[in-house]
Amino acid sequence: MLEISDEPPLFDPRRQTQTLFKVQLYFCSILGLVIFLTFCLVRYKFPLLYSVRPYRNKMIRRLPKSFLGWLKVLHSISGDEIIQVAGLDAYVFLCFFRMGIRIFFTMTVAGLLVLSPVRYLLTGKFDKEMTGLQLFYGVMTGSAKTAAKHDDSEPTGYLVVCTIFTYIFTATVFFFLFKETLHIIKTRQRCLGSQRSVTDRTIVISHIPDSLKNEEALKSHIETLGVGNVEKVTLVYDYTKLRILFDRRAEIVHKLEQLYSNYYGLEIRIFKDVETPSAKLKLDLLSQELDLDASVPLPKAYDSKKREKKRPTGRITAFGPKVDLFDYYCQELIQMDQNIKVLREKGDFKPIPSAFVTMDSVSDAQMAAQAVFSPKAFQLITCLAPAPLDVNWDNLHLSSKSVFIRKNIVELIIIAFSILLIIPIRYLSSLLNVNAIKRIWPEFGDYLIKHEILRTIVTGILPTYLFTLINIALPYVISFLSNLQGLVSKGDVDLSITRKNFMYIFFNLFLVFTLFGTLSSYKALLSDTTKIAPLLATSIKSLSLFYIDLILLQGLVMFPVKLLQAGDLAYIFWEYVLRHSWQTPRSYRDLFYKPAMFEVGLILPQHLLIFIITIIYSVISTKILTSGLVYFVLGYYVYKYQLVYSMVHPYHSTGKLWPIVFHRVCLGMLFFQLQMLGTLALEQSFVLAALVVPLLPTTVVVILFFNRNYLPLLFYIALDAIKTSGESAETDDSDELGSFLGSPDGAGRKPRSGRKSVVMRTPSESPSPSHTDPEALSAHVLRKRRSTIDEAREACQSYIYPLLKEQLDGPWVGFEGDDIDVVRYYATESQIVSDIVRQKVSSIEYD
């Protein structure tokens, strides 16, 4: 047992006045305001950086160029519009922030009007925060009397109030959690029930036996099972050979694009105040008229203008002769195109025991995806197909054994990674405690004790910023590892990244940081695991100021930084300024005219952690509750702006993110209840602690209840919703964030025309007039509206390997919006002929 005498003399820098809180509040507020005003300034000076999506998607409202006028337009964007222009997954992501606003607004009102005044009357303090390390040493030595001696016991009346509010806040969270769950289910069923896209009608069948590796045989077999009619069967093959050729071709095209850009120079019109951004060669090849034979290759033809600059030459190998680089790569490209055409026509690809099966109806696909096709294990396994753009084609050829091994290896690496990081995280948590610093570096610890300002910086501010940096940087490593698992769906990869990142953040940056702050914590927990609850309660109290600082920093500073997209600005500076000579029209278009990817797996976990921390502190600290409310309000509008105007979430997981949110919120509730249980036990209020115990199994029951009754509706589409095109999903008027925040035009409001929130039908599914009442048909026409962005992305897609239908375009030598200038080469018997054509690229925003 560790004795108190083994520790340094008692000194607790966390027993601080509100000075640190005020300093952090003022600093974060001023810095955040400066960053926000900077964003407001550059937003309309460089609109392509911060609102590129309206240039690509005409359905998105343009923001005014006034300094702050855009805020009103952003606030007025409804939930229906978010679904239409950002997608269902983006809407579900914002629903989490909306739920956080509602929960913490309710809790903050209760805390400010009831809990804090009662706490002040009974204890003389508005917030119950750390009052010293005496309680900590009492817990470590297992002596409740020692703890009581060093810390004044709380009045019984106050502990009763804490117990009551534990129940009230638990009920509040579950009420809004289920309310939001019901709303998401109804919205999801309305959206998906009204769609008839190829994705909604397609399933994936894996582990197909050799006897059925034929499209007609597989189609006949499925139809004989009675699960519905099959429209199309697309068998999957191993296209590795074709992909290798296209990878080599992309390198050649890139070389040619760099040659054109460096030889002729580029005229960039991206930051200028023009309607359509462009990047073209300084010599407009399309408009030039040459009195030359049309068979003369373009580079040589324009050399007739007596350009001073010589045509580029170089050695392809280290000791090879110098060659004309234009001629060499033109010939290489033509030869590569011939090889690709031959391979496509030959079709000599190894079959894979998987297939995409498109059914005649959505209901048939839903039933087939949940059916058991074969009495044999590991044969004819079915599931709903991801959208064509979401398919990881390179992973389809991996066997089940290979995927299983990959997933487990990645899991083990992440677990080992998390365990190894316990050591640096422990030292980081030691910065909060001068006593811990003194054990490691006695001279520096003594110096901190004597100098209050430096002590405040080292123990109060520095850990917060280091914590934030770790929180931002390390999830990218987990994201890289998660992409190696071999998952077929990119949407599933995104969800997997979310789960793994949360596991790492919650374990390392919360549990380890909170519970294992000192060596004595390790020894105490290893010697007696029953001390987990008391230690959690004590550590939570001792870290209250740290978490206030963290939430203030994340909310008041990091959200404006996200709005400013500082990381993207740094990348643009690197590419546009430092690597200017390497850029091509294609790279400029990718850099400025394609929206950035919104990666939920890297973003959501840290907000879930802040949500959990705020819940855990809800009874202890009203300041943290208020900070959490501000955090989620700012987060809602920052991400609303990004998802509508500057970023896209391309993966279509149809709202499957919500079960992850639900389960993690319930995990936070378990720790909240465990923390309150430990707090009451430390105060020797065992009766009140016993009253908190039933909340733990209640939360477990809530999880089981959700999994049984709600989870299927978040993975599948109800047949009744399909039958009625989503109209059977009960209209939900609870989606009124605008009214909750004082706006008549908030998210989820009904459109001004009075139509239902989301009811979509394409003309092909319209009821026949001969079988429909005229009044009903009229009502249907009124309800009809544009398709969502998810439908638009899938409108012209199919489950054919993309490289089988990829156009063999030459290098890009210019772009103007969606119009691309492409060089095409043709080989004749004696020479290479080339010309330039202008064509439109795909309408997909992130193309």
Automatic annotation (TrEMBL):
<keyword id="KW-1133">Transmembrane helix</keyword>
<feature type="transmembrane region" description="Helical">
    <location>
        <begin position="502"/>
        <end position="525"/>
    </location>
</feature>
<keyword id="KW-0472">Membrane</keyword>
<feature type="transmembrane region" description="Helical">
    <location>
        <begin position="596"/>
        <end position="617"/>
    </location>
</feature>
<comment type="similarity">
    <text>Belongs to the CSC1 (TC 1.A.17) family.</text>
</comment>
<protein>
    <recommendedName>
        <fullName>Calcium permeable stress-gated cation channel 1</fullName>
    </recommendedName>
</protein>
<feature type="transmembrane region" description="Helical">
    <location>
        <begin position="457"/>
        <end position="481"/>
    </location>
</feature>
<feature type="transmembrane region" description="Helical">
    <location>
        <begin position="158"/>
        <end position="178"/>
    </location>
</feature>
<dbReference type="Pfam" id="PF02714">
    <property type="entry name" value="RSN1_7TM"/>
</dbReference>
<keyword id="KW-0812">Transmembrane</keyword>
<feature type="transmembrane region" description="Helical">
    <location>
        <begin position="103"/>
        <end position="122"/>
    </location>
</feature>
<feature type="transmembrane region" description="Helical">
    <location>
        <begin position="409"/>
        <end position="428"/>
    </location>
</feature>
<dbReference type="GO" id="GO:0005227">
    <property type="term" value="F:calcium-activated cation channel activity"/>
</dbReference>
<dbReference type="InterPro" id="IPR045122">
    <property type="entry name" value="Csc1-like"/>
</dbReference>
<feature type="domain" description="CSC1/OSCA1-like N-terminal transmembrane">
    <location>
        <begin position="21"/>
        <end position="180"/>
    </location>
</feature>
<feature type="transmembrane region" description="Helical">
    <location>
        <begin position="23"/>
        <end position="44"/>
    </location>
</feature>
<keyword id="KW-0813">Transport</keyword>
<dbReference type="InterPro" id="IPR032880">
    <property type="entry name" value="CSC1/OSCA1-like_N"/>
</dbReference>
<feature type="transmembrane region" description="Helical">
    <location>
        <begin position="660"/>
        <end position="680"/>
    </location>
</feature>
<dbReference type="Pfam" id="PF14703">
    <property type="entry name" value="PHM7_cyt"/>
</dbReference>
<dbReference type="InterPro" id="IPR027815">
    <property type="entry name" value="CSC1/OSCA1-like_cyt"/>
</dbReference>
<feature type="domain" description="CSC1/OSCA1-like cytosolic">
    <location>
        <begin position="200"/>
        <end position="395"/>
    </location>
</feature>
<feature type="domain" description="CSC1/OSCA1-like 7TM region">
    <location>
        <begin position="407"/>
        <end position="679"/>
    </location>
</feature>
<dbReference type="Pfam" id="PF13967">
    <property type="entry name" value="RSN1_TM"/>
</dbReference>
<feature type="transmembrane region" description="Helical">
    <location>
        <begin position="686"/>
        <end position="706"/>
    </location>
</feature>
<feature type="transmembrane region" description="Helical">
    <location>
        <begin position="623"/>
        <end position="639"/>
    </location>
</feature>
<dbReference type="GO" id="GO:0005886">
    <property type="term" value="C:plasma membrane"/>
</dbReference>
<dbReference type="InterPro" id="IPR003864">
    <property type="entry name" value="CSC1/OSCA1-like_7TM"/>
</dbReference>
<feature type="region of interest" description="Disordered">
    <location>
        <begin position="728"/>
        <end position="777"/>
    </location>
</feature>
